[in-house]
Amino acid sequence: MTRRSWLLGWTCITFWMLSCRTELIGLQNDLQQQPRIINGSVARADETRHLVSIRLLRHDNNFGSGHICGGALIAPRKVLTAAHCLYNNQRKRYRRASEFVVVLGTLNRFERRNGTIVSQVSSMAYMHTFSPDSMRDDVGILFLRTGLLSDGVHLTVAPIQLAGQVTPSGRLCQVAGWGRTEQSSLSNILLTANVSTIRLQTCRMIYKSGLLPGMMCAGRLQGGTDSCQGDSGGPLVHEGRLVGVVSWGYGCAEPGLPGVYVDVQYYRQWIEERSGAPSCSLSSSLLILMLCFVVAVGNP
C-alpha cells in the first residue's frame, strides 16, 4: 500500500481507540448516576431467584465488574428492567443488545457457581416515548440467548409473576440490588431492604409535575431506607409479585423524598405483548474501521 493508504488506516485505528475511551467514560458516568440500597440486609437466595445482574460485556472481563443495573426474570428468557439501563447517556443513544451480558443465579456478583447462568442478549425492547430527562416510560426488556429450559425448573433461578392490579398504599415491599451502599461503594453481595408503597396523592405533592403516568413511589417518608445508584432496573416485590422497577429519585433515603418506580401494573399489557426478535448489529465504529481498510486496500 502507498503512504496515503497507511495514513488512512492509522486514522481509522485512532478513531476506533478514541471511541472505546468514550465508552469507558460513559460507563463511569453511568455508575455515578444509578440508584443503591441504603440500610439493607443480605438477601436470601430463595427470595431473589428472579433477580439478575445486567452488565456491559466489554467491562466484565473481571467477572462482576461490568455490573450496571438490576432486572427481574419474568419468563424463561425475558428480563424486565428500566429503559435508562439500556440507554447510553454519553452518546445519547440506546446500546445494542450485543453490548450486554446478563447473569442469573448468584448472590455474590463476583462468584460464578454451578447454578449460575451467564447469557448474552439476543434482542431488547423499549418504548420510543422514553425520555432520559423526564424518565417517562422508563421500562425496558432484554431477551436472553441462554435462559431457563422450557420447563423452567432450576435450583437457583425462577421467573417472578407480574402484579395484576394496583398495589394499595402502605403495603410492605422488598427492593434488592448490588448498588451503592451507605459507604458509597457497589455491594459485592445482593442486598435487600423493606420499603412501603406511598399514596399517589402524597407522591404528587412531593414531585409535582415530575410524577408522570406509569410512576409510583415507595420508601419511608422519614428516610433511612431506600434504593439508589446501582439498583436501577431492579424489582420492587410485594407478596411474591413484581409491582415496580427501580427508576429514579432525588438523593438516597432522604426524609420526605421516596424512591420513584415504574408501575408494573400500568405497563403490564405492553410488557406481555413484547416478544424477542433476532438482533444482529456491529458497532458503528467497527463498521467505519472495516470500511476504511477496504478503501485503503482497494487504493494501493
Q: pLDDT average, as an integer?
A: 81
Structural class: alpha+beta
CATH topology of the largest domain: Thrombin, subunit H
- What is the distance, rounded to the nearest whole angstrom, between the alpha carbons of the first and last residues? 5 Å
Subcellular location: Secreted, Extracellular space
GO molecular function, one term: serine-type endopeptidase activity
EC number: 3.4.21.4
Keywords: Disulfide bond, Hydrolase, Protease, Secreted, Serine protease, Signal, Zymogen
How does this model look, in words?
With 300 residues, this protein is an alpha+beta fold. It has two domains: 3-31 and 280-298, no CATH class; 32-273, Thrombin, subunit H (Beta Barrel), CATH 2.40.10. Helices cover 20% and strands 27% of the residues. It contains four helices and 16 strands. The protein has a six-stranded antiparallel beta barrel. The chain has a six-stranded antiparallel barrel with strand order 2-3-4-9-8-7. A hairpin with a 2-residue loop joins β14 (235-238) and β15. The protein is globular and about 45 Å long. The model is unreliable at 3-36 and 278-297 (pLDDT under 50).
